[in-house]
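Objective 1.3, modelling of assemblies. Example input:
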Amino acid sequence: MEPIAKFREIVKKQKAYGYMLNIIGWDSQTEAPREAFARRGEMVGIISGEMFKLLTSQDTIEGLGQLFESMDQFDDATKRELLRAKKQLDKIIKIPENEFVAYQMLLNKAQMVWQDAKEKNDYAAFKGVLAEIITANKKFAKYYAPEASAYNTMLDDFEEGWTMADFDQFFDVLKKELVPFVRKLLAQKQPPVAPFVKRHYEKEKQKEFADYLIDVMQFNRNRGLMKQSVHPFTWNTSPTDVRFTNRYIEDYFLSSIFSAVHELGHAIYEQQVDTKWDDTMLNGGVSMGIHESQSRFFENIVGRSHLFWEAHYPKLKSIFPEQLKDVTLEDFYRAVNRSEASLIRVEADELTYPLHIMLRYEIERMFVEGDLSVDDLPRIWNEKSQEYLGITPKTDSEGILQDVHWSGGMIGYFPTYALGSAISAQIYQTMAQEINVDQAIRDNKLGIVTDWLKEKIHQYGSSKSPKQLLEEVTHESFNPHYYVRYLKAKYGELYNIKED
Amino acid sequence: MEPIAKFREIVKKQKAYGYMLNIIGWDSQTEAPREAFARRGEMVGIISGEMFKLLTSQDTIEGLGQLFESMDQFDDATKRELLRAKKQLDKIIKIPENEFVAYQMLLNKAQMVWQDAKEKNDYAAFKGVLAEIITANKKFAKYYAPEASAYNTMLDDFEEGWTMADFDQFFDVLKKELVPFVRKLLAQKQPPVAPFVKRHYEKEKQKEFADYLIDVMQFNRNRGLMKQSVHPFTWNTSPTDVRFTNRYIEDYFLSSIFSAVHELGHAIYEQQVDTKWDDTMLNGGVSMGIHESQSRFFENIVGRSHLFWEAHYPKLKSIFPEQLKDVTLEDFYRAVNRSEASLIRVEADELTYPLHIMLRYEIERMFVEGDLSVDDLPRIWNEKSQEYLGITPKTDSEGILQDVHWSGGMIGYFPTYALGSAISAQIYQTMAQEINVDQAIRDNKLGIVTDWLKEKIHQYGSSKSPKQLLEEVTHESFNPHYYVRYLKAKYGELYNIKED
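Predicted structure (tokens):
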């Protein structure tokens, strides 16, 4: 068999194993009964083992080697695919098996230790495993690329091609331009939270509105579905099967609305990828940052816009006539765009959110590249929180212990959240020059928007790198000023803040 | 590696593949979006191929051969396991691959042809593929066991150890004792269907009652769940994960009640199998007949008993106070035990049901062992329907075309349905001698019953043959007289029929 045909066969088999594990994952997170998990773990272990054997077989390694020798004969997409396959292989085989196994066991333990520590506000109980996780990740990064900075290797895992140099520039802009603006806003006396926000909204009716949003957002119901789970997430195996979940909190209904719009942003991206990439290493959305740019574009730029609620507030009001009877469109718009100093990232508003991320990025950078000890983390966290957000956590549970990421071994993930928001503003800028976005939003014709995104971004799946994609769409490289400008314009108007 | 250790490893890997395909199957039948199926088919094909390779590898074949040579050293359970493994292997490797593939394609086509023919009442369009399916099954049966009667081989696929001789005896008893009784009953003038049966019952409330039945039946919610689907079914991967579905027809609420009880019978059997069989060829319920004995025991003997509704009718009435306000317990009991001549098997009542099966058994026997041509099937069907049920189908759609089984290649499956009912009566007879079943039903303490079933039947999974199991539980071999006696006693009282 030709090496490339052999490669195709291996990729396809890998996809099949992945498909199985994927469906199991969906089932685990949305409905599997509690006592199923022990058996399930065993079964998943065996199939993962088969997949691992396939990916690291002599056939795979030698075949890839041969293909690399004759790289010139392939088109750009295939070249990119081979590079991704090589990266995937190296990520596995460059780590000694015993270290990899020990690390998996460490992560398993860390999950429980972290949960417990967070519950009991006991950072001291967690810092030991955290130190071990950091050490292991640094070591693995060096196995993979001995010459590179460890944090750059980690960042690249979540956002291909993005380095500290890139992120430093980005956060520098935020620090210079956004932090002072936020400080002005937070110095104002805030009106109290509107009472309607905390009223009781029935789950079934919240679901009804989320279901309405599915059509508003042009999600293809023949290629996916919405379900319920503890934490909202989007899940996909192919553009023909994209599912997402939502959750319904009866005394905080705004949560289910913006979760739905956010997840729909992810889901529509996945639905609109060309199925021709299905059997390649180029399927699915290309990176965390680009993915997040789609979800945050819909959640914030579209979903928290005045125009959007001009179109959909009447529908919301018809579903909740009692709860919203004394609430005007204006009240509602202000409530969903309220900004305030807060401690918890996942509850932060659109404006202050990136500052929560900046804090994490700076700390990760320090403990990976510098010599920041885990002993000093809470102090540094709290200082930065005060500096950027004007508020200091009273406990570590609402500070350094709040996020799951580090206990799951995910170091370098956080910055993609802020990057996504910034990219969404840059894309929006281009989009607004090419189509009438405002009118599409107000006229409930988001198909115009999703078609544009499909043509410019979605269809390509992972066949272009995140940087190449962004440059081809917006005709310039990443530029965080659009983001800062967007935030200042919106919140400047809402809070009547004038720039110096 | 020792041959037995090697065997264990292969079985475990087979279980893991099966587990994946199983979850995919559940997902396909309960929620996967429409357009997911093409991709899914491909992925399932690849994994099934891997499983096939494993099951038919030289390693597997030679290993089994070695183990068979030293069979004496193993305990009974392991011996039985090896025999089952050998049977599974022979079923695959004795059929030439090209014939197996052609047959799968035939079945694929047959599904659509049958559906279409049933819709259009066009038996002529179906009989060609039916003849091909019959021919292929006869051929495969002869490949597997050249010396055996083909229909015996087919019967054994669904009910291990059961032959035509056994079934002939069984149906002979029904023909002699039940058919005349049914004829007497059907000769009576029937009161019309009670109006409350056809009233409108909201889906959500039907679900609420089904959910109540889950607890009544002592189903373990940490090891399973109930969901919705087009046709009710039970599904399991291990005793720790047993799921079933129900459906809710708003103008026929009795359907969801008895479907739930029926499926719960299957589900509780699977939940109570000892998990020690999980990684062996002896996991899960042992046969169709024994399985059906559990579902029909709960559906009919328990679920349609007066005692059961003494306990649960008040609850049902509290959920549907409007629809049932003029309906007494007595009215309800009679309505759920109404017997009448009917054409459609799946809608038949408890009393006439086995006669629907007898008709199918006799026809299968004729077209496999005799020379009955597919051309003559509708005529024979209609004659037997008139003879046993006193009613002749007006169209083939409500006669010979009504069931999916033959188009799916399932020949020899039908008789297990009637067998299950008969076995349930025999088991009930023993159970009633050992525990106070009536009191347990009336006092809503079905745990006493399910514990007994666990101890006597469920825990053993497939580690005993169906015949052995039945004999050990009831201290005699299969005896259909208990079944006939039970039916005559119950319906004799309901319809005031005296035996000659």
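Chain B touches chain A at residues 12-13, 15-17, 19-21, 23-24, 26-27, 31-36, 38-40, 42-43, 46-47, 50, 220-225, 227, 237-238, 240-241, 243, 275, 278 (CB under 8 Å).
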